[in-house]
Amino acid sequence: MNTIKVECSIHAFPQGKEIDLQKISPQIKVTGGRFFVTSYTVRTLCRFTFQGKKISQSLGTYPHAEFEQNLPLIVEKIHVFHTRMAQGLHPFEEVKNPKDITFAEFALSVYMPNARSRKKSWKDDETRLHLHIIPILGHLKLEDINVGIIRKVLDELNQKHLSPASVNRIRAMLSSLFNLAIDHELVEVNPVTRVKKFRENNQKERYLNANETQRLVAILDQPQDYGIHNAIIVAIVRFLLLTGVRKREAMDLKWSDVDLSTGVWLLGENKSGKARRINLNQAALDILQQLPKSSQFVFANPENNRPYNDIRKTFDKIMHAAGVYNMRIHDLRHNFASLAVNSGQSLYVVQHLLGHASPQTTQRYAHLQAETLKQASEDIAAAIRSQSQQVA
């Protein structure tokens, strides 16, 4: 399939307006393609007149960064629709044996609609499919995909650039997809069940030491001195450091969710799908009280009054300025947990501070608690020695 060069940035087109796909590039000769631009995605579809009736068909919704990558596939689909109409066939109704359905067809027409209806994280599945799986497995018949093929795909993803945890998330998605295919009687077995998970080393959490914390706070206090001028993202990083909440929980925070007088934040639905009550400390409240209220979102991007989509670039700049390396945004959550445990808080308290649905998730910090208890015991022994020496 030939690469189609996009001549004009997607951001140059007005949001929410139906635009002819041919305006994207002069290389697109096929007619009927349309697209809508939103703040974060591009929704594509095609419109035809068939046998005197106007008909339309969705061609998928893609994040801005993936739209250009998927454009050749979109154009190819429209070519196929034109070919069917030329044969007197309805362009969107392909008569075929259900057993001949390809992975891409099932993933996009059956799995994704199902995921959207039941998963908060369906966008993650959509991205994984388009970025990692459909380019490799999309053309294969669903029933022809076996254990060896799945294992090879996951091994290659791990060897190239993805972490074991990321590959395991893809594996879990594929397993759900094939279970759904079994429900639709398109395959008899789930090949993913015989592919072992990759070992994840979840104990390698990154924590800030005292010197790193001191340097980081200094940067956050005077970011402009280090060429960091995005005050909202600086506030997000400071807020994450002080609360241990998940990145997306903070970035999607609305003014209506928090009572500034009591410091109570009612998080309507967290990662586990349950409501959560968060008691903000005064330092975190001070951050919120200094922010403008020009949007319904607390940490709104001033360019569009919407939550930021990605803050990694500014985050990395902050960490570099502070001389803190190998630190991920999520590690601020681990750091908060570490400080809580090392200050003598029980794992039960840490579980509720972090909003873990299960105490098993909090057990990863048990080794920190053991070290804290050991140090406490050593301190007591030292005090006894000191007192005995004074008596002598």
Question: What does this protein look like?
Answer:
There is one protein chain. This protein is of the alpha+beta class and 392 residues long. The protein has 3 domains: 77 residues, no CATH class; 97 residues, DNA polymerase, domain 1, CATH 1.10.150; 167 residues, Intergrase catalytic core (hpI Integrase, Chain A), CATH 1.10.443.10. The protein has 14 helices and 9 strands. The mean pLDDT is 86.
Tell me the layout of helices and strands.
Blueprint: E1 19-20, E2 33-37, E3 41-50, E4 53-63, H1 64-86, H2 103-118, H3 122-137, H4 147-160, H5 164-183, H6 210-221, H7 231-243, H8 247-251, E5 258-259, E6 264-267, E7 276-279, H9 282-289, E8 300-301, E9 306-307, H10 312-322, H11 331-342, H12 347-354, H13 359-362, H14 366-391
Antiparallel strand pairs: 1-2, 2-3, 3-4, 5-6, 6-7, 8-9
Short note summarizing the structure:
The chain is α+β, with helices and mostly antiparallel strands and 392 residues long. It has 14 helices and nine strands.
